[in-house]
Amino acid sequence: MQVLNPLDFGAVPDGSTLCTEALQKAIDAASAVSGTLRFPAGTYLTGSLFLKSNMTLELPEDATLLGVVDESAYPMVPTRVAGIEMVWPAGLLNVRDAENVKICGGGSVDGQGEYWWDKYWGQDRLGGMRGVYTPKGLRWAVDYDCTRPRNVIVYRSKHVTISGLVSRRSPFWNIHLCYSEDLLVEHVSVGQNAGPSTDGIDIDSCNGAVIRRCHITCNDDSICVKSGRDADGLRVNRVCENVEIYDCDLGLGAGITLGSETSGGIRNVYIHDCRYHSTSCGFRIKSAHTRGGLIENIKVRNLQMTNVREPFSFDLNWNPSYSYCEIPVDYTGEVPDHWKVLSAPVSKEQGMPEVRGLDIADVKASLTPDYTGKSYAFLINAYPEKPILDVRMKNIAIQAYEFGSICHIEDWELDHVCVDVCQNLHPSEDDPLAPGL
């Protein structure tokens, strides 16, 4: 296999010279010969790059792709973002309509996210676009209007491997896998993500994805399985299926989540042998009564959780101010097309999500003596007309400060499920965990 060097195409790895054009030429050349683009040590300042079929991008440990802080460097492209199809900025590293692509090595993709985080919520987390939108009844719109790149996007592609990569300071989600098949993400580290919506890895209406041996710290869902939102997700109607997540270490963030974008359905997911420390949730399902979709055949085994606020969180009426999109009656401004998509009505029959067939075993959740956050063993909330059905839980041991609550379940079988409601030795009104919105 031919090995190409980006320096031969004019790239300058000094961290200050913009290399987008040179790097794209090198990528195109590597694809043309089914070769490998191997980066020498250094920092390559760049905007969006688009990988092509039949190539390898090798980024060694001492090499970094540094996202330039310039919104014009990320072209607006058709994509799916947070459950709806719309035009949004391309990612820093993109695999679009391609196959047989490998991204490997221990190098870094650094999105320099602080600029975009401040754009969303300001430097004090109380301002930015969210601070402007929320009082106007537009909390649901800000995540879409506040356009931000993602560090890595795999879109409408197949046979893609991401191995050994370090993703940090992503402006939005770190790694987004969408409408793709036969995917492997392994030995990936995600960190330094203090900003909003900095999910670790999102698997979105894909068929066949393995996520293994990853280390993830972020400010939202650590690993998330999705399939579209509301009317647009029901229109696309593309299931996310055949996903395996195992041997991952999760710190902070919101754990492993199904949803809240569930409209196309989620099935055949196997989560096992993962370790959590100080995440807000452990195994989480979230949806809303405008999402719809069937979640079924989910298997969970051997999870070890330490200082996890909510080991089991199933909320099918999650985050109403974000989940339910309605243009305020007194709003007089422009109504963008994506607002119309988001606020399109969904019938009660279509919108009610359904969860059934959960097989959960061998989970242990414990608290250390110095843990001061909130703690609930179960927070489970469905609907009387659509209870969560057919759940088997075996060999579950949870230590928590409160039992929590369980509403609207049916046909649950519990075998050796123990909840130890213990005393909080260091009570605090402040919850130190990330919000995980």
Quick rundown:
This protein has one domain: Single-stranded right-handed beta-helix, Pectin lyase-like (Pectate Lyase C-like).
Describe the structure.
With 437 residues, the chain is mostly beta strands. The chain has a single domain (3-421), classed as Single-stranded right-handed beta-helix, Pectin lyase-like (Pectate Lyase C-like). The chain has 8 helices and 34 strands. The strands form 3 sheets. The protein has a 21-stranded parallel β-sheet that branches. It has an 11-stranded parallel β-sheet with strand order 5-10-13-16-19-22-25-27-29-31-33. A hairpin with a 2-residue loop joins strand 8 and strand 9 (84-89). The longest helix is centred in the first third of the chain and has 13 residues, at 20-32. It is globular, with a radius of gyration of 22 Å. It starts with a strand and ends in a 16-residue tail after the last strand.
What secondary-structure arrangement, pairings included, does this model have?
Elements: E1 3-4, E2 14-18, H1 20-32, E3 36-38, E4 42-46, E5 49-51, E6 55-58, E7 63-67, E8 76-81, E9 84-89, E10 93-96, E11 99-104, E12 108-110, H2 114-121, H3 128-133, H4 139-145, E13 152-155, E14 158-163, E15 166-168, E16 175-178, E17 181-186, E18 189-191, E19 201-204, E20 207-212, E21 215-218, E22 223-226, H5 230-236, E23 240-246, E24 249-252, E25 256-259, E26 266-277, E27 281-286, E28 294-306, E29 310-315, H6 320-323, H7 337-342, H8 348-351, E30 354-366, E31 376-381, E32 388-400, E33 402-407, E34 409-421
Parallel strand pairs: 1-3, 2-4, 3-6, 4-7, 5-10, 6-11, 7-12, 10-13, 11-14, 12-15, 13-16, 14-17, 15-18, 16-19, 17-20, 18-21, 19-22, 20-23, 21-24, 22-25, 23-26, 24-26, 25-27, 26-28, 27-29, 28-30, 29-31, 30-32, 31-33, 32-34
Antiparallel strand pairs: 8-9
